[in-house]
Amino acid sequence: MIHLIKLDSEEEIKKIIAHSKQAALRALQSYDLEWKQIRYNQLSDTCTFVIETANEGLFLLRIHTGISREEINSEIDWLDALSEKIDVMIPKGIKDRNGSKTVKVDLENGYSCYASLMCWVEGEQLTGNLTEDQIYNEGILLAKLHQVSQEFEISANFVRPVWGEQSFRRAMSRLAHYYDRFLTEDEFQLYQLAAEKVLSSIGKLTMDKEMYGLIHGDLHQGNIVFHKENPRPIDFGRCGFGYFFYDIAHTLLGLYPKQREVVLKGYTRTRKLEGDWLSVLESFTVMVMIENYAHHAPDPRETEGLKEEQPYAQAIIKKYLIDAPFLFHPIEIKENGS
Fold it and tell me: What CATH number is associated with residue 307?
């Protein structure tokens, strides 16, 4: 049985990490690696471990739950295609001794999961110390990814999630179960109003090749590392089908207004934004913000951080609901959070 990750209690988190450690050690036996150290990295949608080898550098071992072999293989196929088309270092999958991209691991009590091994992408995370060139290059990177997406031919066995109306409705359903951990009733009502407006906005869009295709799905600042001035994308675990605006929104959300302008300058150097792009991009930004909170809401490790961010989040939502532009304007936070 392949279990879904459910991070809603400290006890459950400890249990998942313990199972994942067992799975990691068993999975490593399927690879031709002279590894000398394995260390726990983090637990989110997957549980990851850093593998240090004697002569081949570092690797990232991922323990997947609640996802099919076909989905994992499709992600790795997409990464292979990207690596052939763009001059940017990205993660690549390592096959096991049998030539498989994924390894199924069976543990006691009927627990099973899949594992995949990825090349380590060298780089440094620079969350708060980005130069203008680095930020500009993030926009160029996004444009390159989306350009390859337009040219990628989808095979019959290619399976990846869709990020759009239905996934957002699922996120709102999840948030409805856990919002009281960090939101008041009135605050949650604003989230619901914003969600209705988001759904109305994206429901009007067309799925043409200029706007829609394969996307990273989670290219926030934590999933970008830098080698000098050059950004490198990591963690394609949420890659799937969606609007390119959805990708852009992930990258912009964690930046200051002036930095967001620089990203778009880099992006539009090769890809144009047409029509009423600003209001659409702001809808996707609110969508991404709400999805992020829905994703982290069950996790008790995140509760205090979510509470601290609400004055800013509420200010964005209030501006969005009255059609007041916010992406490129500083947000003033009053003491009452309005």
Answer: 3.90.1200.10
